[in-house]
Design goal:
The chain is α+β, with helices and mostly antiparallel strands. The protein contains 5 helices and 7 strands. A 7-stranded mixed sheet has the order 1-2-3-4-5-7-6, sandwiched between helices. It binds coenzyme A.
Amino acid sequence: MIRLAEKRDASEIAAIYRPFCEESCVSFETEAPDAAEMASRIEKIRLRFPWLVCERDQRIAGYAYASAHRERAAYRWAVEVTVYIHADYRGQGVGTSLYAELFDLLREQGFFKAYAGILVPNPASQAFHEAMGFSPVGIYRKIGYKLGAWRDVGWWELALRPEIDSPAEPRPPAHAIESQP
Ligand SMILES: CC(C)(COP(=O)(O)OP(=O)(O)OC[C@H]1O[C@@H](n2cnc3c(N)ncnc32)[C@H](O)[C@@H]1OP(=O)(O)O)[C@@H](O)C(=O)NCCC(=O)NCCS
């Protein structure tokens, strides 16, 4: 089941994310956020973008969310997307389902482009994003230093819809509208 993330999901989400901060370079964060910090990130993101979780066996099997790609005004139709799947649920279509739902919601909001920044090499993530229709844009070489070496980050892009002149302003996510008093 795919649904919007709630603050109560924060500790499971933080547990999925923790090894990527502490034991790998997949995330460039070096200190894993705790549940309280994750709850505050979920709350903040959800004002502007969808944050989705996939529930399986009453556990969080994975999550995906969008965030601003850059904050300058002309970038406002472009989002960055992030996805992490629990080790027990990888290779079972969870990432595909989360991204498909996320992109539907982003299209409804009026966004045009999605970008993914991926530590390279990360063959699983690169293949996954290309399977989802992303194309490679380019590589920031040796942009981060983590676990004793300089690391490259590649960028991939996906057109959520064809560009048009005079695009309408992106709308807040439907759940944000619903939760307004
Ligand atoms: C990368 C990741 C998000 C993929 O999610 P997933 O749920 O495991 O992927 P899916 O089962 O939906 O796979 C969809 C397609 O992606 C590709 N893919 C997924 N995992 C792959 C792997 N390990 N190796 C090669 N291709 C892979 C395949 O084309 C696959 O289609 P197929 O099953 O028909 O072969 C997930 O493995 C993950 O969280 N990895 C660790 C964290 C990470 O790297 N996150 C991305 C940060 S940028």
